[in-house]
Amino acid sequence: ARMNVSEADIDFMQGMIHHHAQALVMSALAPTNGASPSIQTLTARIINAQRDEIWVMQRWLRERDRDAPAVADDGTIPGMDHSMHMQMTGMLSPEQLDQLAEARGPEYDQLFLRYMIQHHEGAVTMVEELFAVDGAAQDEAVFKIASDIQADQRTEIARMQRMLDAMQPGGSR
Asked: Against a cut of 0.70, is the pTM above it?
């Protein structure tokens, strides 16, 4: 039964590992880029949640004798071709990643929130696209992972938007 899976499920799990890996790269910048305590708390939560989900997706893929992309501690994927990243919804371009890496303090905080909202919206879209494929997400584990990702990312988008709004002139701090 484990070998009879939808190719859409395989593509989703492999793609979401790449997607989560970029969130790790983005979040890992917070301590060295002068992020505020609230952004550092948020990025620590993102790192913990995404690492756990990556591990679950890798295990699911391996159990089905499928390629499970390896993710380094810093979120990079050894041998990764960035053109694949650009094909996924919500992924930051190399220029956006450079801009985030160069930002410091409040500029980093605001840019991180804007870019992570974009990134999370892409993950939600990936889940919606998976659910739209006939025969996809019939595997209980895939359905649970995708549903959890969708709920968690939507919740974090709302939280990050409130944080971003509070940083704008006239916003509540």
From this structure: yes
